[in-house]
Design goal:
Elements (H helix, E strand, L loop, with lengths): L13 H21 L6 H14 L13 E11 L2 E10 L3 E6 L8 E7 L5 E11 L7 E11 L14
Helix pairs in contact: 1-2
Length: about 160
């Protein structure tokens, strides 16, 4: 099974633009949360707003964060081997990527999203779930690091910029 979808194949529909906005919000929150002790008052307010949007309802879900459905092309690397896949859902804590070939539980992978507007995002995660026989091959990842490569998210001192 081939799941190759490149940026060139990616028409800039409003649905995909919405998916990209969701990815940006999830990982802006993850970045702010990782720096919580050093945030300015404005950044703390932004983090609280994002938290209100993204945190799941503890009474009705086993996950701390809502999973939001997406359909974005992704490049996945495990042991240096590149694979193409589709990001099917995302949250500040993880993501599910559909792949043409399976990954092994416990594998450390880098997921890269290259967007039509020139932004790129790289996330590092650990495979926690693999699809069973009969399911679309893919992997559920628990994210360990979100590295923003887009200039609008980092300035020289690695703090988020506006």
């Amino acid at each position: 099974m081939t799941l190759a979808m490149s940026v060139e194949d990616w028409d800039d529909t409003s649905e995909r633009a919405d998916d990209l906005r969701i990815v940006r919000l999830c990982y802006k929150y993850a970045l702010l949360r990782s720096r919580a002790a050093t945030l300015t008052a404005d950044e703390l307010e932004e983090m609280k707003t994002l938290e209100d949007l993204l945190v799941g309802d503890p009474r009705h879900a086993r996950r701390a964060f809502r999973r939001i459905t997406t359909l974005l092309p992704a490049s996945i690397r495990s042991d240096g081997e590149p694979r193409h896949g589709l990001l099917l859902n995302v949250s500040p804590a993880g993501m599910y990527v559909a792949l043409g070939s399976p990954l092994h539980r416990g594998a450390v992978v880098d997921v890269e999203l290259n967007c039509p507007d020139g932004d790129s995002y790289v996330f590092t995660g650990v495979v926690r779930h693999v699809a069973r026989d009969g399911q679309l091959p893919g992997a559920g990842l628990s994210l360990t690091r979100a590295a923003f490569l887009a200039p609008r998210y980092h300035n020289n001192d690695n703090s988020p910029s506006a």
